[in-house]
Structure formats: C-alpha cells, structure tokens
Amino acid sequence: MYAVTGATGQLGRLVIETLLETIPADRIVAVARNPAKARDLADRGIIIREGDYSRPDTLVPALEGVEKLLLISSTEVSGRLPRHRAVIDAAGQAGVSLIAYTSMLNADTSPARLAVEHRQTEEIIGASGIPAVILRNAWYTENHLLALPAALEHGAIVGSAGGGRFSSAARKDYAAAAAVALASDGHAGHTYELAADQAFTLSELAAEVSRLSGKTVVYNDLSEADYESVLTGAGLPADLAALLADADAAASRGALFDDGGALRRLIGRPTITMHSLVATALRS
Predict the structure, then answer these.
(1) What whole-number distance in Å separates Cα of residue 67 and Cα of residue 69?
(2) Which pTM does this prediction carry?
C-alpha cells in the first residue's frame, strides 16, 4: 500500500489525485490529523487513517501494512523536527520499505534558515536505514501569488530578494513528482533537486502581473529587516515573518535557483509556467 501524510492539505490532495491515475483507490492510505476532513476521499474508496505528527501513538497504526510512504513536511515552520522524527520512527516500526520526503531545494547547502530542519530530517531518514527518496522542492509559485490582491491594490510586490532568481514551480508539478517517486521503481537512494524549467526574479514576476492584469505593478526591493516588518504588519507571526524574510535574502544569493531539469525529467513533461499560474490567479 501507498500512504500520504498530510493528505487533506493542498499538496497531499494533489498527490492522491495523481496516484489515482495508476493506483487503485483501495491501495492508497490517506493519513490525516483530522479524518473528518477526508470524507470525500473515503467516498472514492481511499483508506482513511488518523495520523497526527504531534501524537506518535497514532502513527504506527496509521502506517500498518504500508510499503511506500510520502512524508509531507509539517506546515509548522519551526519545531517540526520532532514531528518528522515521530513519523520516521513509526515507519520503521511498521516495516515501511520506502520513504519519500518533501524537503527544500539545496537543503544540504542552503543558507536559508528554513533549510535547517529539512537538512536534519534528511539526516534522520538516512540514519533510520529505511530506503528513501528525497524530493527537494523549490519555492511554490502559488506562494508568490498569495499577496497578489495586495500587489494589485498597492501597485507593488515587495520582498528582499534583490535580483535573485526563483526556480519556483507549481504545486501540481511537485505533486506529480511525489506520485512518480512512490508509484514507480528505481528512486530509492536518489535526491532530486526539483525546480521549474524557467526561473524568474521578483521584478519579472511583477512585470508579468502588470502585463496580464493591465495594472502597473512594480517590485519594491527592501532590506531584510524592512521586509520582515512588512510581513508582521500584514499579520504574520513574528517567527514566520523572520524566516520568510531570511529566505528572500538567501534567494538573493542563489539559494532558490536550480537549472538542473530534474523536475521536468521526473514528471515527463515541461513544468507549468509562471505565466500560466499568474493568469489563473488573476481569473480566480
């Protein structure tokens, strides 16, 4: 059987949708902190099991009979290492034969503080002895677009990335890669740096938003501290704002750029373009 943790999240649902193209529903286990949110998946024949990263007692039963596991990294931006360790320990106890883990681009060398717990999780997986495939995802293009309404209202996208290039890809592409890593053989022992075919700067993103919306939108490059203040002013928790501003600053030094083409090769098609995602966001 194939299990996906965080199955009711945005990425988890897309992975399950992709798995259903080749895997029978009764061979897929959706592991969710709140199984009630997975009722629609149960209606399609998918096995639903409660599994909460912060409640280790739920995890071994959730993984019973599972051969291949996708561990989607916790949405907590700090303190997630114990949660990941609990899932990995449970996978060992349950006899899981492969773990796929959604890590961060260049996690082993990235200066971004967000990379630290990903790097540590990779090390725990390696020490577990369970065969694994590491899926190092670049930024999600959709995350850049969360501030699109504000950008259109104020005529600016803000950040602290300078001219750094983001190899951001669509969530759907990362989900397709995860499904391939689970549903096909030959991926154990591999680490994939997953990034879009075409990278962009935030200035280029702003220009595309302008072109497609017909409204003037520019990129305002701020210091890391000033960008952090903007994020906290927008209501983000202080620790998250600090991590995101730090990530932007790291991007200015190339931390979120990759042109190796691994994502395209893994999913067997070109990645979805930034242009397409901006156009979709503007229509929604």
Answers:
(1) 7
(2) 0.95
- Which DSSP helix (H) or strand (E) runs through 170? none
Task: Judge whether 262 and 197 are in contact, CB under 8 Å.
Answer: no
Local confidence band at 7 (pLDDT 50, 70, 90 cut-offs): very high
* Distance (Å, whole) CA 174 – CA 40: 22
The Cβ of residue 65 has, within 10 Å, a number of other Cβ atoms equal to 11
CA distance 58 to 257: 37
In this prediction, residue 77 carries a pLDDT of 73
What count of other Cβ atoms lies within 10 Å of the Cβ of residue 89?
Answer: 15
CATH of 2-138+169-196+258-271, one of 3.40.50.720, 3.40.640.10, 3.40.50.150, 3.40.50.880: 3.40.50.720
- The mean pLDDT of 56-61, rounded to a whole number, is 96
